[in-house]
Structures are given as structure tokens and as C-alpha cells.
Prior knowledge:
mainly alpha
Amino acid sequence: xxxxxxxxxxxxxxxxxxxxxxxxxxxxxxxxxxxxxxxxxxxxxxxxxxxxxxxxxxxxxxxxxxxxxxxxxxxxxxxxxxxxxxxxxxxxxxxxxxxxxxxxxxxxxxxxxxxxxxxxxxxxxxxxxxx
Length: 131
């Protein structure tokens, strides 16, 4: 009985998580993909490069903060320190993650986190530019 309850609770939590995080993505307009680019983040203009509203800046900052928290939850403290060192030395997030020595499943988890956050930022920016 307790196993069914745990499974049901887990399923409910997963559904709520998807509902909370996917509405912005589902409203985004499809954009042409640049298949020659290896980094989605590089395609985003910086906040200061375009004139964003404070609300849009705050939304983007929230996505970045959530991404960073999720990545930190996957990494151990020494890997977090190593990632910070790579970023401070001038690498972007994708380059720094590639330099980390991670198990394949943890690397895939971090890449999924980054891809989801990139899609969320793209959705926010596409809503901003469509108005």
C-alpha cells in the first residue's frame, strides 16, 4: 500500500513540476535552428545588448538562477569549485561543463538542465520580441 502511495505521490510531483515549467515553452513560437552552432547560449544577446524591460530581465535572471541551483544539486562541492574556476578563467558554461570529469549519466543530466533553461530563455525572449 505504501509503495502505491509513494508512486502516486511521485507521479503527482512530476506532473506539477512539468506544469510549472513548461507553460512558457509551450507558448513559444518555433524558431529556426542554427545547426552549425554548438552553443545555444551564445545565440542569446546579453541583457545589456538589447533593451529589455525590467520584468523580462527578472524572468531571465530567475531562469539562470534556477539552472545554477539545479546544476549545483547534481555536482559535488569539489566539482562546483572546479566549474567556478573554469568559468572565472573565461570559459562559458558549456565549455566549463565539457572540461569537468563527470560520469556519463551526470553529464547528461547537466546537459538536460542547460538545454531546458536555454529553451526557457528562448521562450521568454521570443515573447518579448513578439510584442
